[in-house]
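Listing S7. Sequence submitted for prediction.
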Amino acid sequence: MPTVENFRALSPGPVSVGKDNWSLTVHDLGVLRVPSGRLEASDPFVNLGEGIVVDIPPGDYPVRVTVADVSDEQDGSHLREAYLSVVLAEGEVTTVTAAARAGEVPEDGKYFSVPVDAGTVGFADADAVASAMPAGDWYEDVYDNGRDDSWFALIDSKEHLIKGCANVVMPAATAGENVVLAHSGWGDGYYPVLSTSDSDGRLLAVHIDLLVVAEFEDQEDEADEVAGASAT
């Protein structure tokens, strides 16, 4: 489990990962609407509507992505998304914990994780998916429909937000119900859902840790541990 000292979500600046010295930048991805208070973390191209649900106060929240420059030259030529975060409140982080899934707290040392098979993670209002996503084939009608507003086109567009991220309104939305997406760091895998809190126990943010900055003694063992904790 990360500690406050080595958990770098929303913290721009230099970071040492093993023998490498990288830099982090934080980018605003707009606002996510969560009127139900049921925040879902998923791979939106694979399991939207079936992801991990974390209970938060209902509201509209800023979403930010922390990006690592992993290039040898530190010239921005090789960027990887390191964390996707929903910011609930501003404050000083004193605790990093596994996020509770709809009130269910994982065992000590374990955490719920997002299974990723399309190289993408995202946040949405869990209750909005049923009403704001259309019937039919989402892949052909929404994700890759050949139009500039397709989710694939937006996530690859530098003009929309930053390349690799998107904030999209669901096609059948009536009140701006949306999904915020980001490429998942190094690609497919299982990614922990974590929360940060202040000294009063106030929840500050919910994060998907894309395991770019995290240091683990044995990456395969850690992946097995995450997978084992991702029961749905």
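Caption to Listing S7: primary sequence and predicted structure tokens for the chain studied. The two ends are 21 Å apart (CA to CA). The first helix runs from residue 128 to 132.
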